[in-house]
Design brief:
The complex is a heterotrimer. Chain A is an alpha/beta fold. Helix content of chain A is about 35%, strand content about 15%. In chain B, strands 1, 2, 3, 4, 5, 17, 18 and 19 form an eight-stranded mixed β-sheet that branches. Chain B has a six-stranded parallel β-sheet with strand order 9-10-11-14-15-16, with helices on both faces. In chain B, strands 6-7-8 form a three-stranded parallel β-sheet. The longest helix of chain B is centred in the middle third of the chain and has 17 residues. The chains are: A alpha/beta, B alpha/beta, C alpha/beta. Chains A and C meet through helix 1 and helix 11 of A and helix 3 of C.
Chain lengths: ~325, ~425, ~170
């Protein structure tokens, strides 16, 4: 098996492609650095000069305003220059190949590529072909990984729960298609969370998920019992009526988070969601806006976490 | 022209003969020695065996000359010790018309390298709707009929196609794949696909389709050769089917007895194959099945792919691996790992394949066609693009060192390849 | 012959006595991680300052990021008072090239505009590479080539100056 493409020969992070395969020490370094950046985002001058003169290219092959915006904000708060490229790729049009696009940008003196792509593994292909001083951050590839989301989720959990060593975490919904779920699972198991659960219908739970170290529940009430953290996944429109699920309404009936179901978790359980929420499908409004919800803080932490990732990676 | 291959370790897998001796070739056939030979090959320290017979090698002509040409792939074949090959009908256009078949055979004959046996399309354009004119195609030279990697989804059509073929005794070569179940998948639906976030193709994609095929064989009496087994369960089903006396045979791609889903690593698109590489348990069952004869033979499933089509995200990359030049070393590696006698190892890529193809080659015996390979089983070589004559440099084994180097290849008594 | 290093504990009351004359109602103290914070904690107590102690990590303002990257886990900068209009006392353990202080001042100005900044250090070892000076230094120490001057804190809180190998 090839060497871990994310680490350089000194074992330092040179690309962030996936939480899987990262040593615990590096995850903790990112979370600790993010904590310092939270301090920066809370003061009036929210910028630090750390990455002045560096160019960050946002390469988004899949459209996304939210994620792209948070990366842009994070880069600018590091005083970096940001260039946004939205490349709509349809399977029919055979335009410039992925590697040709990257090579062209590389010729324009890029330091850091933030890449979102519809195909799992695309950032690995890019990372294999960039120059030694160029770095790749995966902003989401297919259903494989969304490491910065995983990290901000871990940061959020650490902020409210302090320690991972005694946590029961439930991830609910379309795990099959979710890169958010996979990244969070890898992060939790690396940081020592003893019980990680996935909850969903058989159609939405992938075949090999148990091998990642999680317990599978199809009954949401059983799965939520005594949980410290409940992460609700977004259900995409395309999935809601077809061979995977009959309807959004029935999904909400069985797997939607309501106050009544949440009561089965621990009294101080926190509710998370990567956003954007489908109110009434994954989660009802009283819970989304209620005292257990930490959904908005997740967004704030997301900027600090991305600042941490960029500054660590770009310095190695 | 007469040829003497002197002092080599002569192996005839069909009879089990394995001893040092001479092989004499005259007028295109293996003969008893008579007088002085026009040419001599010193085969001391080397193995002399029947030339390899590969039941699946894509030559990319007609239609895909940007990927490879007949000339380059025929060079690759004989460099790999392959003296006969069957090419699947998935050319562009597919081999569903006698004119195309005829042209292919002529071109191959003119190149005078390996023998080429075209496999005709079972349905027009491989679309799975209308039967091809199988008799006309057989007359043009097709040895069997197949859908290549495009399974028929309409079971009614499959049934009728098998009935029609059975009428005339035409062999039908089929991949066991349920197209609905494999539709979106790009990798085996197991731990690796989950970990890598790749859409999965469950094992039952193969077994469900195989059950259908076996039932239809029972109903029609068609002679079916099942291509490219990929699951342990399918091996068991074939074993049972043969025990029940069904007229079925099967093969495995040589890559599949060595590689598994684990080899995908960090999205190595050279491992993007069809069928997908499955679990280690499947791989081991395929390797055993080939050893005990449940799987009749191994093929290269040669598919040259332009490197641009492999330097893509895994799901977007084109499937296939180059294989003509790796069939021999990979077969030897498999045989050595299982500690099989060399004759049995070679049988799986010579005499057993010949039996399925229905040809006289694949034997080292007086009167047999003089299709031979002389090779050094111990000489290692590194699999790098420059070492391959095929235009397809796409291999999961790039960078590996493999043992088994061809020194000479003889087809119909002519030395068509020589090295070292 | 190796010169004897000054006793850090003895320097603290000496420094505090010097600083007393500077204290105004607008005074606030900021220690630079990590050694500067140790010194500042002691001085803050000795001077009984009303404004709470601020602590600062200059990791994001260093001038060697391009060469060294973000090497260690940065500690948090916490400034629990308004910087605007303050007479700030920056406190560090050892003053050497002046780059740390330069970075600290840049960071401070991103918090607001102080009325004045004065620098107090426990030890000044010379070797300035920038036009930076300490208004108050506990001691001037000569450091042999190839050595580093470090402040150490024992488990019981006792501070001491030590020499280590290193540039």
């Amino acid at each position: 098996m090839a060497a871990n493409p994310q680490l350089n020969s000194h074992g330092e992070l040179q690309h962030l492609l996936s939480i899987e395969g990262l040593p615990r020490a590096i995850l903790e370094q990112i979370l600790n650095t993010a904590e310092s950046f939270v301090g920066v985002t809370e003061r009036e001058v929210k910028k630090v000069p750390l990455m002045r003169g560096k160019s960050v290219f946002n390469l988004f092959f899949e459209p996304s305003t939210r994620t792209r915006t948070t990366f842009e904000i994070a880069a600018k708060r590091l005083s970096a220059d940001v260039i946004n490229l939205n490349i709509a790729v349809s399977s029919q049009t055979k335009g410039e190949s992925l590697l040709d696009t990257v090579a062209n940008l590389s010729a324009m003196q890029a330091d850091l590529f933030v890449v979102r792509h519809g195909s799992s593994g695309a950032p690995y292909l890019i990372a294999r072909h960039v120059k030694p001083h160029e770095h790749v951050i995966n902003a989401g590839d297919g259903r494989h990984a969304h490491p910065t989301q995983g990290l901000l989720d871990l940061y959020t959990i650490r902020h409210y729960k302090k320690e991972f060593g005694a946590l029961t975490v439930a991830i609910v919904g379309d795990v099959l298609h979710s890169r958010v779920a996979r990244s969070l699972i890898h992060g939790l198991t690396t940081l020592g969370a003893p019980e990680v659960r996935v909850i969903g219908p058989q159609t939405l739970i992938p075949a090999g998920i148990a091998a990642l170290g999680v317990r599978v529940f199809h009954d949401m009430r059983a799965g939520l019992k005594d949980c410290d953290v409940v992460m609700m996944l977004r259900l995409q429109n395309e999935r809601m009526a077809g061979p995977l699920l009959p309807s959004a309404q029935e999904f909400f009936m069985n797997y939607g988070l309501t106050a009544e179901k949440l009561a089965l978790a621990k009294p101080d359980a926190i509710v998370m969601h990567p956003g954007p929420m489908n109110r009434g499908v994954e989660i009802d409004s009283p819970v989304a806006d209620g005292p257990h919800s930490v959904i908005l803080p997740q967004v704030t932490f997301g900027i600090a976490v991305r600042m941490a990732v960029m500054s660590i990676v770009a310095g190695n | 022209m007469s040829l003497l291959i002197k002092g080599g370790r002569v192996i005839d897998p069909a009879s089990g003969r394995d001893e040092v001796g001479d092989v004499y070739v005259d007028k295109g056939r293996i003969a008893e020695k008579k007088g002085k030979a026009d040419e001599t090959i010193d085969a001391r320290g080397l193995v002399v065996a029947p030339g390899l017979i590969d039941l699946a090698a894509r030559l990319r002509e007609p239609g895909q000359e940007y990927k490879a040409t007949l000339a380059s792939e025929m060079d690759a074949a004989v460099a790999g010790g392959v003296t006969s090959l069957a090419c699947p009908p998935d050319t562009h256009p597919p081999l569903d018309e006698p004119g195309l078949v005829d042209m292919l055979r002529r071109r191959a004959k003119a190149l005078a390298r390996a023998r080429v046996y075209p496999v005709g399309a079972l349905t027009v354009k491989l679309a799975g709707e209308r039967l091809t004119e199988m008799s006309v195609l057989a007359e043009a030279g097709c040895v069997a009929f197949s859908q290549s990697n495009v399974p028929i989804t309409d079971t009614q059509v499959l049934w009728r196609a098998l009935q029609y073929a059975a009428t005339f005794g035409y062999p039908v070569w089929l991949r066991a794949e349920d197209k609905w179940l494999s539709r979106e998948g790009v990798a085996h639906d197991g731990d690796m696909a989950t970990r890598l976030g790749l859409a999965g193709i469950p094992a039952f994609t193969e077994t469900i389709a195989l059950a259908t095929i076996l039932q239809l064989v029972r109903a029609t009496g068609a002679r079916v050769h099942v291509c490219r087994l990929s699951t342990a369960a399918a091996v068991d089903m074939m074993r049972e089917a043969k025990k029940q006396g069904l007229p079925v045979t099967c093969d495995v791609g040589i890559h599949y007895v060595h590689l598994s889903e684990m080899d995908l690593g960090y999205y190595d698109a050279h491992c993007r194959l069809d069928p997908p590489l499955r679990s280690q348990r499947d791989r081991d069952a395929l390797a055993s099945g080939l050893a005990d004869g449940t799987i009749d033979c191994a093929v290269s499933d040669h598919a040259p792919v332009d490197e641009d089509q492999k330097q893509l995200p895994f799901a977007e990359a084109e499937t296939g691996a180059t294989g003509l030049e790796l069939l021999l070393p990979l077969a030897l590696k498999w045989g050595a790992a299982r500690k099989l006698p060399l004759a049995r190892t070679l049988a799986r890529v010579t005499s057993d394949a010949a039996r399925i193809l229905g040809v006289q080659s694949g034997r080292v015996a007086p009167g047999a066609p003089a299709d031979l390979v002389v090779f050094d089983p111990d000489e290692a070589w590194r699999v790098i693009p420059a070492a391959l004559r095929s235009q397809g440099k796409n291999s999961p084994f790039l960078g590996y060192e493999l043992a088994g180097r061809v020194r000479a290849t003889i087809v119909a008594g002519n030395v068509v390849f020589r090295q070292g | 012959m190796r010169a004897k290093l000054p006793d850090a504990e003895a320097l603290l009351p000496k420094l505090a006595a010097e600083l007393k004359g500077r204290i105004t109602p607008a005074t606030a103290m900021i220690g630079l991680h990590t050694g500067g914070v140790w010194v500042a904690e002691r001085l803050h107590a000795l001077l009984a300052l009303t404004a709470p102690l601020g602590v600062m990590d200059i990791a994001f303002y260093r001038d060697d990021y391009a060469k060294e990257g973000l090497k260690h886990d940065p500690k948090r900068t916490k400034i629990p008072f308004e910087v605007e209009g303050r007479d700030l006392l920056l406190v560090d353990d050892v003053l050497y090239t002046g780059r740390t202080v330069r970075a600290a001042m840049n960071e401070l100005f991103d918090y607001g505009r102080p009325r004045s900044i004065a620098l107090a250090v426990l030890a000044d070892r010379g070797g300035r590479e920038l036009p930076i000076a300490a208004q108050h230094a506990g001691a001037v120490v000569e450091v042999p080539a190839g050595k580093r001057l470090r402040l150490k804190r024992a488990d019981d809180g006792r501070l001491s100056l030590e020499l280590e190998d290193g540039g």
